[in-house]
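From the methods appendix. Each design record in this collection lists the tokenized structure first, followed by the designed amino acid sequence. Records were kept in a plain field format so they could be parsed without special tools. The example shown here is representative of the layout used throughout.

RECORD:
FOLD TOKENS (454 positions):
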């Protein structure tokens, strides 16, 4: 049984069940109908015999037979005297049973090999005692049951064969996706083809649903493998430039023609590249922890107004050094349940970009306010907005700037890792919020972050 396929096991199980069920049902049915029919025959016999008794008459001890009916409703009537001598009818119909007379007892006997039911009644009329016997043939019902039995014996195996074949066909068709699933799984595990999908079929049964679920899982796996591959190639690509700079600066500093100032410059450049790489490493670590779901923000009630003002103060010297003016418009005492370190990083990234991608003599405006929701079900939002009068962002780049390592062509020459804005969006999402950008190329950009308060 263990080495049989599921299809064969299912078919075997229900065929056996059906066979037993049908056999039991047919047996019960035949038994019941034969009981009913023999009860009816008994009743008929007793009625006809009782009627015959009432029509019996004796004159001077002799039986009067003129008015008597010896055959009615299939029942043959015989009159005997008390010693068992047949008084009437005189003509032997060949159905007369030799059985001993027994009062009011219906029983089955065989006369010349034919089954008969007999019923006797003892009575006294005109001071003369006598017996009346009724005999009815059971041959017809015997024949009917015999034919039904043959029909069932022949028909049942045929019926079960058709049901088994049909059932096996249906199960085989239903299990077809399983073969597809196994084949796809084998191909995926033996190779690297994650683009393979299992045929889902048009039905909506359990296996089609399983195929759809497995296909969904494969799509997610394929997407996450592709993301991993992209990530690895992005990281190695981004590390190549600073590593090449460090290597060439080291080679130069170690060469005999490098003087003291040259060595100093080379070391400064190496330090800058190392800082950039370590910044990139820590941002990447945080981002990947966020994506893996292993990062838990340390939430606390933070005075966001003070935190924004302090971050602006820290970055003001850098803005001034770039010839920019920074303005702030901060709503006082706005508190937020948030991760303080992440919030500082979010604001710093936005302001650093506003400094980096600005134009000489430009402005930076940092504002913090609350926004009431338009409908009563949503929460009020803290809104951090950083606007600049910088180079702006082309329309086709506006959505891509949030991707890891994406840098618009116009800003490739500047320092940066291409991770700042993906960090901003991720931090906003960690706090249940969202970030968006608007820009008019050549005139400036506005970055807005919404975080629910409460
Ligand atoms: P990075 O600044 O390190 O390159 P970011 O993820 O912070 O990386 O930004 C991605 C890209 O978005 C930048 O390279 C730049 O092209 C564009 N960008 C971001 N902020 C601004 C801004 N304020 N003005 C113009 N372009 C910007």
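DESIGN:
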């Amino acid at each position: 049984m263990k080495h049989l396929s599921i299809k064969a096991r299912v078919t075997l199980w229900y065929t056996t069940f059906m066979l037993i069920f049908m056999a039991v049902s047919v047996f019960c049915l035949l038994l019941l109908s034969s009981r009913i029919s023999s009860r009816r025959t008994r009743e008929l016999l007793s009625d006809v015999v009782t009627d015959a008794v009432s029509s019996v008459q004796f004159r001077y001890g002799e039986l009067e037979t003129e008015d008597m009916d010896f055959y009615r409703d299939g029942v043959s009537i015989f009159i005997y005297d008390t010693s068992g001598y047949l008084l009437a009818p005189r003509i032997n119909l060949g159905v007369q049973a030799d059985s001993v007379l027994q009062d009011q007892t219906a029983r089955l006997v065989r006369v010349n090999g034919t089954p008969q039911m007999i019923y006797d009644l003892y009575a006294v009329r005109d001071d003369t005692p006598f017996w009346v016997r009724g005999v009815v043939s059971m041959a017809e019902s015997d024949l009917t049951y015999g034919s039904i039995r043959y029909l069932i014996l022949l028909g049942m195996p045929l019926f079960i064969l058709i049901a088994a074949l049909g059932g096996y066909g249906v199960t085989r068709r239903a299990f077809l996706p399983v073969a597809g699933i196994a084949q796809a799984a084998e191909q995926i595990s033996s190779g690297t083809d994650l683009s393979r999908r299992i045929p889902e079929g048009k039905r909506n049964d359990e296996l089609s649903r399983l195929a759809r679920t497995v296909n969904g899982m494969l799509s997610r796996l394929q997407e996450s493998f592709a993301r991993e591959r992209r990530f690895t190639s992005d990281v190695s690509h981004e590390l190549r430039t600073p590593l090449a700079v460090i290597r060439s600066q080291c080679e130069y500093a170690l060469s005999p023609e490098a003087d003291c100032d040259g060595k100093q410059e080379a070391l400064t450049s190496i330090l800058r590249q190392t800082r950039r790489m370590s910044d990139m490493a820590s941002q990447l670590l945080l981002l990947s922890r966020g994506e893996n779901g292993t990062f838990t923000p340390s939430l606390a009630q933070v005075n966001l107004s003070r935190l924004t003002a302090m971050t602006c103060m820290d970055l003001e010297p850098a803005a001034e050094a770039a010839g920019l003016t920074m303005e702030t418009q901060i709503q006082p005492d706005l508190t937020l349940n948030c991760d303080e370190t992440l919030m500082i990083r979010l604001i710093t990234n936005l302001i650093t970009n506003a400094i980096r991608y600005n134009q000489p003599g430009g402005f930076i405006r940092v504002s913090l306010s609350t926004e009431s929701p338009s409908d009563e079900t949503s929460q009020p939002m803290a809104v951090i907005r950083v606007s600049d009068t910088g180079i702006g962002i082309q329309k086709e780049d506006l959505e891509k700037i949030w991707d890891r390592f994406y840098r618009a062509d116009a800003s490739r020459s500047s320092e940066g890792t291409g991770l700042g804005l993906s960090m901003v969006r991720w931090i906003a999402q960690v706090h249940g919020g969202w970030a968006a950008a608007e820009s008019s190329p050549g005139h400036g950009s506005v970055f807005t972050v919404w975080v629910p308060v409460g």
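APPENDIX NOTE: The mean pLDDT is 86.
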